Amino acid sequence: MQKNKNFNAFDDSFQKLAVEVTRVIGQNKDGSTQEQQVEELLDAERKFKETIIKYRQSTKVYMKFWNKVCITNKNILSARPYFRETAKTFSARITPAIKATDLETLKTFDINYGLISFIRENWEGPFPPRAEQLFKRVHKAREVLIENNMPLAINRAKLFFRKVPRSHVTLMDMINTAALGLANGVDKWCGKYSPVFRSVCIGRMVGNLIDEYSQTTLHF
To answer: What is the separation of C-alpha 150 from the centre of its chain, rounded to a whole number of angstroms?
Structure first.
């Protein structure tokens, strides 16, 4: 049974993915280091927020975000993925601001691609040109980081796939789950770059894989 499982791991879909990942990483090569890539993303995000909060409409858009969290979702914790802040900062400072509908304080915290996209999608009228330029910078920097680290996500998914009992969950399912964990790691990294960045992303990938596999097992 183990032999068949390993054979299925390397089907046509996996081979095509591997070829595509190699091609994209080749396209992304520009001589920059991972540290420079992370700092580029963080710098673009900070400048986007600094630009957007200069507009009066930013308060209205943050109010829409508050409504999404508190009225639609009815869950303050649903705001957490949108901020590039630690869990401690979210609990001690962001949660009270949300509870008090203190939008001006909410504007002071670092945001990531999730809230940046929400702001852009909920802006009324033409989006400010400078903010649009910075949005494209954020999108590109995030995309490069995720794409360049996809071999790591694939590796972690393969390791996990080989260790757990066989189920209907395919290797490609696990790669998708690990990739989501990678994106989450990229979006939630806080502070200046350090080599720990890689470990944080791995932790998010493995956490996602365990959660997904456990939920699937319980369901069946």
So the answer is: 13
* 121-149 confidence digits (pLDDT tens): 999 999 999 999 999 999 999 999 999 99
pTM: 0.89
Output the six-digit token pair for 45.
């995000």
The answer to whether 205 touches 178, Cβ cutoff 8 Å, is yes
Pull the structure tokens for residue 179. 């990739």
Cα–Cα nearest to 136, from 41, 212, 204, 214: 41
Please enumerate in sequence order all residues whose Cβ is within 8 A of that of 208, keeping only pairs 6 or more positions apart, or say none. 177, 178, 180, 181, 184
SS3 36: helix
Half-sphere exposure for 14 (CA within 13 Å, toward CB)? 18
Q: CB 44: neighbour CB atoms within 10 A?
A: 22
